[in-house]
User: What shape does this take?
Amino acid sequence: MNSLTIGGAGLVIVGLLAFAIPVFTTQQTTDVARIGDLKLQTTESKNYIIPPIMSGGALLLGFVLLGAGLYQRR
Assistant: This one.
């Protein structure tokens, strides 16, 4: 398998995952204050939304690269 086929298959998988899970959340914990052994922390959550057009674009580009890789092999 050449790199076009592998890259295309990877983009197809990423596109399908983005359609299946369009929103994901990350959390970051930071120290606010520290006095001796006492430590105050805060956790900040941030949501990321993947637009459907971006998921579809990755899926379409993945299929194009996959087809080009298979066509080039013949």
Q: What stands out?
A: The chain has one domain: 3-73. Residues 3-73 form one domain.
